[in-house]
């Protein structure tokens, strides 16, 4: 899906941002293989610089009272944690991510959302959510 107002002629390429949502990524052990996994739509977003984008993570009801952590994965880098959000909706940013102030998160009983209110070119990356459930990981 592409979300970009205007035609390509009206929107110079250097003013657009390509944000691929993550493909399924599960770290499965014998215990985790039987567990439910978090789900993210496998979407690719193209947003204009300065606009808003959000990524949704479903199935967070299985996380219980454990936190949901959001990660950024740029093409040539490793997974970098951005923030985590509690089941009560409180966020914490203890990871010293260089763009941490650009991100906010919201969480309800079975869904979590990561938002970038003012998209910049250097936000181009894949975004993953993760939580821990009873000693196993459920990741997307």
Automatic annotation (TrEMBL):
The keyword Signal applies. Residues 50-140 form the Ig-like domain. It is found in: Membrane. Keywords: Immunoglobulin domain, Membrane, Receptor, Signal, Transmembrane, Transmembrane helix. Coiled coil: none annotated. The keyword Hydrolase does not apply. Residues 1-32 form the signal peptide. This is Ig-like domain-containing protein. It comes from the Eukaryota. Pfam families: V-set. InterPro entries: Ig-like_dom, Ig-like_dom_sf, Ig-like_fold, Ig_V-set, TRG_var/const_region.
């Amino acid at each position: 899906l592409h979300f970009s107002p205007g035609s390509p002629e009206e929107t110079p390429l250097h003013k657009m941002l390509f944000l691929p949502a993550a493909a399924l990524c599960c770290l499965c052990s014998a215990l985790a293989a039987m567990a439910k996994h978090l789900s993210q739509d496998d979407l690719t977003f193209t947003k204009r610089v300065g606009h808003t984008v959000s990524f949704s993570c479903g199935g967070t009801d299985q996380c219980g009272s454990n936190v949901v952590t959001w990660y950024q994965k740029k093409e040539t880098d490793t997974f970098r944690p951005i923030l985590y959000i509690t089941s009560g909706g409180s966020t914490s940013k203890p990871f010293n991510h260089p763009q941490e102030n650009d991100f906010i998160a919201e969480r309800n009983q079975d869904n979590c959302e990561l938002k970038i209110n003012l998209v910049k070119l250097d936000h181009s990356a894949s975004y993953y959510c993760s939580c821990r459930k009873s000693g196993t990981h459920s990741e997307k």
